[in-house]
Design brief:
- The complex is a heterodimer of chains A (301) and B (244).
- Chain A is built from 10 helices and 14 strands.
- Chain A is elongated and about 70 Å long.
- With 301 residues, chain A is an alpha/beta fold.
- Chain B has a single domain, classed as P-loop containing nucleotide triphosphate hydrolases (Rossmann fold).
- Helices cover 36% and strands 27% of the residues of chain B.
- Chain B has 9 helices and 10 strands.
- Chain B has a 6-stranded mixed beta sheet, sandwiched between helices.
- In chain B, a hairpin with a 2-residue loop joins β9 and β10.
- The longest helix of chain B has 16 residues.
- The chains are: A alpha/beta (301), B alpha/beta (244).
């Protein structure tokens, strides 16, 4: 009861939103769509949620066809859109009740599924949704998306603009939901969250760059990569960008990730070049690629 | 040059009824510094920034921004700072050139100055050929880079950046930070909020707000030592409890 997309295209007038999107999400899998704003993530969700017709291609959700079986799909998926989708003028409890009623169920019937999440906002159940903080809104929206016990859950950028602590809590909730057998398709622009998914699709400008486990994607990175550091970050980046042997140079936290064009690369040479350019306190050490390195390399092509 | 303070804050407080959104925060920011202003959602960052940029009146405490008092000279502050956020950046229905002209005009630059500056700016950003395109048609990353340049048009002493890189692709995010480094290198002070903890590492100093108070303020290196961890992400997770 997973998700399957095959050669999905969608354009808005002349603007191509997504092109030739093909991937499968296995039943019970936590699958991540990873890419920046404008990559086409929301278009894919809207097509799968039967809110938008593709121009070409086929897709099924929980074994149901997105065109033929659209009504059945709407009953078996939970969808949490990127923008806050709740009724601002209804209270927390009223929102939840509303969504339960729409789906012909009650809060009590499926309470065990949302208990974990809803308990955190229950003290504010009489507060209007519009008056909640970002983190609480997110928890309420997730509760509403789950209240009819969906087989498949679509989460479009649930953690955008959310601080690292709340993001961590949110991913822990997703892991618990996955254990209950729910298939989850989640999108995020935060590449560090990719590591928390079983498999990911990297997406940019409407096209998929790669699909694999997060580990396999970073293992495929074609170059040796080095952490470089010096006393002046700005000068270090500029100096490396001017170096004739530089293949790529990107700031990564306190280091710069550096790759060299040559097959055989000696750190001493680079050290010497940086020293002669007036940089001090230089360190160069091998490191591993992360998802952002992989994304940037794939996006280049 | 780096020892000159451009922001001085002492016991700055903003109360909404009994709730203190910002509770007696104190800090200084030096000229040319990249100052990271971090905190969980609801920790009070936005309220604090609003007071610093002269659009919200503090309940108590002192604050000086570019030598001007937040109580008595908010208009002078607004003229001497730049501001950009993820939500409000540029007008989508105006072209690139029109946005530059508009914001230049708002900041009181003469037509001649705007013309010269916009020429350089467009060349530097590689946007010369698209200057007559509507901003709404540009990719988010381009918009954010343009928006940052526009915020610097009137050569402010300080620029406030409120989550400037949210949702931006990894390459553009890094190009954006190179622009930040460059501006800081030229003496502009950068006051920046972000949810990307790797970006916290790019800052000269970082403050972390928790429930209205500044709970930590130091260089990323010292903060990591203090909390005995290897990344700013761990510092943040140790410190910021998400109380709602």
């Amino acid at each position: 009861m997973g998700i399957s997309l095959s050669n999905i295209d969608k354009s808005y007038k002349k603007q191509i939103a997504v092109r030739n999107i093909t991937f499968d999400v296995n039943p019970g899998e936590l699958f991540g769509l990873i890419g920046p704003d404008g990559a086409g993530k929301t278009t894919i969700f809207r097509i799968l949620a039967t809110l938008l017709l593709p121009d070409n291609g086929k897709a099924t959700v929980a074994g149901l066809d997105i065109i033929k079986d659209y009504k059945a799909i709407r009953n078996s998926v939970g969808y949490m859109p990127g923008r806050f989708s709740l009724y601002q003028d209804l209270t927390v409890e009223e929102n939840l009740n509303f969504f339960a009623t729409i789906f012909g169920t009650t809060i009590a019937e499926n309470y065990d599924l949302i208990k974990d999440i809803y308990e955190q906002i229950a003290p504010f159940k009489d507060r209007r949704a519009g008056k909640l903080s970002g983190g609480m809104k997110q928890k309420l929206a997730l509760s509403c998306a789950l209240i009819h016990k969906p087989k498949v859950l679509f989460l479009d950028e649930p953690t955008t603009g959310v601080d690292p602590v709340s993001r961590k809590e949110f991913w822990e909730m997703l892991k618990r939901l996955q254990k209950r057998g729910i298939t989850i398709l989640v999108s995020t622009p935060y590449m560090d969250e990719a590591a928390l998914c079983d498999r990911i699709a990297l997406i940019q400008e409407g096209e998929i760059l790669d699909i694999d486990t997060p580990q396999a994607i970073v293992d495929k990175f074609p170059k040796d990569i080095y952490n470089v550091k010096a006393d002046n970050m700005y000068k270090l980046i500029q100096t490396l960008q001017r170096y004739e042997h530089t293949y790529s140079v990107f700031p990564f936290g306190e280091f710069v990730h550096y790759t060299d064009k040559r097959v055989t690369f000696k750190t001493e040479e680079l050290q010497h070049y940086l020293e002669s350019s007036g940089l001090n306190a230089i360190t160069i050490a091998p490191t591993h690629a992360d998802i952002e390195d992989a994304f940037m390399e794939l996006a280049k092509k | 040059m780096k020892n000159e303070n451009v922001i001085e804050v002492e016991n700055l407080t903003k109360a909404f009824g009994a709730f203190k959104a910002v509770n007696a925060i104190s800090f200084e920011v030096k000229k040319g510094e990249i100052f990271g202003f971090l905190g969980a959602n609801g920790a009070g960052k936005t309220t604090a920034i609003k007071m610093l940029i002269g659009i919200s009146h503090p309940s108590s405490g002192k604050a000086k921004v570019v030598d001007y008092d937040v109580y008595t000279q908010p208009e002078a502050i607004k003229r001497n700072i730049g501001y950009m956020s993820q939500r409000f950046a540029l007008y989508d229905d105006l072209t690139v050139q029109e946005n530059i002209n508009f914001f230049g005009g708002i900041y009181g630059l003469s037509r001649k100055v705007i013309r010269e500056k916009s020429k350089n700016l467009l060349v530097e950003l590689g946007m010369h050929e698209i200057s007559s395109k509507l901003v709404g048609s540009l990719p988010l990353g381009w918009k954010q880079k343009l928006s940052f340049s526009v915020a610097l048009l009137h050569e402010p002493k300080i620029v406030f950046l409120d989550e400037p890189t949210g949702g931006v692709d990894p390459i553009t995010r890094r190009q954006f930070w190179e622009m930040i480094y460059k501006a800081a290198d030229q003496g502009t002070t950068i006051f920046v909020t972000t949810h990307y903890m790797d970006e916290a590492e790019y800052c000269d100093r970082v403050s972390i707000m928790v429930e209205g108070k500044i709970e930590a303020l130091d260089t990323p290196k010292n903060l990591k030592q203090q909390f005995k961890v290897t990344s700013m992400n761990e510092v943040f997770l140790k410190l910021a409890r998400n109380i709602e």
